[in-house]
Amino acid sequence: LTRGGSRGVSSFGGTIRFRVSSHNVVYDVLKKKGWKETSDELDWDINWADTGWIREYFDHVHLEEGQRVNHFRNHYELTRKDLLVKNLKRARKQMEKDESWQDAPALDFFPA
């Protein structure tokens, strides 16, 4: 992550602040880079959050321009194959309905 032209600098100035939900290899790598751990719920640059945090907080907070999280709301709609297929079918039907039928065949595949 590069901010302001120098490595490891937060978009808010100073060292990049991170928050993790569990101490794992991600935590070890971020600490090794010299980034600063914070326990604050909202004052961070990177939040390596579990899905519970996303469900509880993501819709109720405004992320600043430089803040990043590792999940997005309803991520399972794309990460589960059955739901991905459902969404591809829905997108294709919507394209056909919107008279974008020439682009619809691009969605005529199914993940394996």
Unreliable stretches (pLDDT < 50, length at least 5) are: 1-6
The number of helical elements comes to 4
> Average pLDDT, to the nearest integer?
80
Secondary-structure content class: alpha/beta
Helix percentage range:
25-40%
Rg over CA atoms, rounded to whole Å, is 19 Å
Shape: elongated
In N-to-C order, the SSE pattern is EEEHEEHEHH
Tell me the major beta sheet.
4 strands, parallel
Strand content: 5-15%
Distance between the termini: 33 Å
Strand order of the largest sheet: 4-3-5-6
Number of strands: 6
What features would you describe in this structure?
Mean pLDDT is 80; it is low at 1-6. The chain has helices spanning 25-32, 51-57, 76-79, 81-97; strands at residues 2-3, 6-7, 17-20, 36-37, 46-48, 68-69. By secondary structure, the protein is α/β, with parallel strands linked by helices. A 4-stranded parallel sheet has the order 4-3-5-6, covered by helices on one side. Strands 1-2 form a two-stranded antiparallel ribbon. The longest helix is centred in the C-terminal third of the chain and has 17 residues, at 81-97. Helix content is 32%, strand content 13%.
Give the secondary structure arrangement, pairings included:
Layout lengths: L1 E2 L2 E2 L9 E4 L4 H8 L3 E2 L8 E3 L2 H7 L10 E2 L6 H4 L1 H17 L15
Parallel strand pairs: 3-4, 3-5, 5-6
Antiparallel strand pairs: 1-2
What attributes does this structure have?
13% strand; alpha/beta; four-stranded parallel beta sheet
Q: Outline of this structure?
A:
By secondary structure, the protein is α/β, with parallel strands linked by helices. The chain is built from four helices and six strands; from the N terminus they run βββαββαβαα.
